[in-house]
Amino acid sequence: VYSIKFEQREDLRVALIKDVTEVKYMGPVYRYIGEDGVKIELTEADYSDEEQWRLLLPNEYDANNWYPNPSNNRFNFDYKGKATSTKSWETGGGWLQETTYHTKVTTTTGVKDYYTHTLKADYPISIEFVQQDDPGVTINSKGNVSITGNIIEPEGAHSIELNSQGSVVASDGVGLFGHIEDMNIVGD
Questions:
Q1: Per-residue pLDDT of the chain (188 residues; tens, 9 = 90+)
Q2: Which domain holds residue 142?
Q3: Within 13 Å, how many C-alpha atoms sit on residue 120's CB side?
Q4: DSSP string computed for 50-100
Q5: Same structural domain, 101 and 19
Q6: Global pTM value
Q7: 106 and 39: one domain?
Q8: Quick one: 24 and 71 in the same domain?
């Protein structure tokens, strides 16, 4: 049985760019100097961490023209991964004409997609042999192997190979019949 579940959650984090991202925190402006691509919520950042943030001196930026602008990687510390822009305009008008006033508000929000895949993997499986150039039995497992029936080397086969990173458990009276080429077991 297989299932898939999709969920989209709001992502309030901001991707930081080394030597570009600037954040205004209670007056002073800090520039990010850590690794590129780190995503954080700006309200949770430690601006006193001198390995991640550098306090900009007044001569390093124009305080009169510095304003938050997410598209230029400039943020207030309370920015939450959302940007809202407003555009207003009017149409029509003139002598004895109707004027229409328009306002367009655009909110951009980061989202993260979560996919959950489930697979019920504890059903017994049957293994059938099909003809191949070099027939044999090869079992590779990253987990435990439970053998509940005999494994018999097919006619014309040259080997049985068993590699398990877990334990190998066989039911009573069950065996491997044939030429054992290789057996590597990490567990019991």
A1: 788 999 888 778 888 999 999 999 988 999 999 999 899 989 899 999 999 999 999 889 888 888 888 888 999 998 877 767 799 999 988 888 899 999 999 887 777 788 898 888 777 777 776 666 667 788 888 888 888 888 888 777 777 888 888 888 888 988 888 877 777 777 76
A2: 137-185
A3: 5
A4: TTTEEEPPGGGS-TTT---BGGGTEEETT--SEEEEEEEEEEE-STT--EE
A5: yes
A6: 0.44
A7: yes
A8: yes
